[in-house]
Design goal:
By secondary structure, this protein is mainly α. It has 7 helices and 2 strands; from the N terminus they run H-E-E-H-H-H-H-H-H.
Length: 172
């Protein structure tokens, strides 16, 4: 990522939001919080957007940060656990619209980020494709690295403690 200052400018409203910070308490891939995951996806997406002329970088950063903004624990067995992969993009898009003043394009990027899992809702713009691809890259890294030394799952609270000890983002 070449322009950290521009990334920070686009991200600060969301990163500094009290409700978004609740994502630190919800885990995604092993011991990685939604907060950490979303920032990693946004940074990857921004880096890819920097290499593509004509891409709305602000849309990419904001939608990537909010792509998993569903605010519930989905790992509990039951209906939510079974349908989470298909349902959470629409839930996150709706929640993002309720809490933030997102554009229609940002809404679309959030709602379509799980393609091809959500077979009938592919991304409709380059920004959406960048977010979807970035999410897959980061999720794969997080899933592949979720096991600590000698194959033991890492402690989910270790991620939370890291966030509290050092900022994953320079808060303005």
């Amino acid at each position: 990522m070449q322009n950290q200052e521009l990334f920070n400018e686009y991200a600060k409203e969301i990163i500094n939001n009290k409700i978004f910070k609740e994502c630190k308490k919800i885990f995604s891939h092993g011991s990685v919080s939604i907060y950490e995951h979303s920032i990693a996806v946004a940074k990857k997406a921004f880096a890819l957007a920097e290499k593509n002329a004509g891409v709305d970088k602000k849309c990419v950063v904001r939608a990537a940060l909010l792509h998993d903004f569903f605010l519930y624990e989905w790992h509990i067995p039951g209906v939510r656990y079974l349908v989470h992969g298909w349902a959470h993009p629409a839930i996150a898009a709706k929640k993002a619209r309720e809490v933030f003043n997102i554009t229609d394009k940002e809404y679309s990027c959030i709602k379509t980020h799980m393609w091809p899992w959500t077979l009938f809702t592919p991304p409709r713009c380059r920004e959406g494709w960048i977010i979807s691809i970035s999410d897959k890259i980061i999720a794969l890294k997080e899933t592949a690295l979720r096991r600590g030394n000698r194959g033991r799952l890492r402690d989910p609270l270790a991620s939370q403690n890291r966030l509290e000890g050092r900022g994953a983002f320079t808060e303005a």
